[in-house]
Amino acid sequence: MAQDLSQNLIPTRYRSVMFDRMEIALHDEYGSKEYWRARRSMRYNSELYDIAEDYRKTFLNSTNKNDNTERPADWTKEKNRRNARGGPYLAVHLRRRDFIVAHKASVPTIMNTALQLQKRMAKLGLTLLFIATDAEQYEFEELKLYLPQYKVMKYVPSDYVINKFKDGGVAIIDQIICSYARCIHNRCTILQHVHIIDSFSRYNEKILKHKIVKQQRLHESRTARVLTH
């Protein structure tokens, strides 16, 4: 695979190459050991991590040290472990806007969403709730009114973040924050939290993959096994 890429990308002419999707370069190896090694090696822009980490520390009482989610800068130095706790908050991706039209039958009302979240928060024993959403501000405020016993937060980017990283960067910051949330059980993933609100989102898949990459254990048989907290 690497040899084919080297021939086709003309490395002597171009200094940089952009892949719209990493699956393009790894198509023949999708799901294999090498695929997951490549996924583990990738990192978002470090400033995005810093922004997400600062937000977690400031608003969600979450730090890598306290949550046992510290990671070495060199991905090859990561070790398999099962003691990561995640931050003391529930993270949810709440789809609204165009999704209400495209999947009207499967999208709950704000009130129904709040009822689901109340049950989940009570089961977890948490008081912090992080919402990644494209909802209008009045919908977010309505949700908060239904959940007065909890601290309900969403990430609001600064003008600097919007101008530098655009909507895509803001979405990644949301994803990073979500990926560090605490699980319901010791074998639960953040995707299960999100599914109670939206079972169709590619965004949720990205959150899960981000979480998987942090916890990945590779088999000698060239298959990947997902280890959850």
From TrEMBL:
Domain of life: Eukaryota
Keyword Membrane: no
Record carries keyword Magnesium: no
GO biological process, alphabetically ordered: fucose metabolic process
Cellular location(s): Endoplasmic reticulum
Biased segments, Basic and acidic residues type: 67-78
Top enzyme category: transferase
Catalytic reaction list: L-seryl-[protein] + GDP-beta-L-fucose = 3-O-(alpha-L-fucosyl)-L-seryl-[protein] + GDP + H(+); L-threonyl-[protein] + GDP-beta-L-fucose = 3-O-(alpha-L-fucosyl)-L-threonyl-[protein] + GDP + H(+)
Chief subcellular location: endoplasmic reticulum
Alphabetized UniProt keyword annotations: Carbohydrate metabolism, Endoplasmic reticulum, Fucose metabolism, Glycosyltransferase, Transferase
Any one Gene Ontology cellular component term annotated for this protein: endoplasmic reticulum
Chain positions covered by the region annotation Disordered: 62-81
GO molecular function, one term: peptide-O-fucosyltransferase activity
EC number from the UniProt entry: 2.4.1.221
Pathway the protein contributes to: Protein modification; protein glycosylation
Span of the signal peptide: none
InterPro entries, per database record: GDP-Fuc_O-FucTrfase, OFUT2-like
Pfam families, A to Z: O-FucT
Protein family according to the UniProt entry: Belongs to the glycosyltransferase 68 family.
Protein name in the entry: GDP-fucose protein O-fucosyltransferase 2
Source organism per UniProt: Acromyrmex echinatior (Panamanian leafcutter ant)
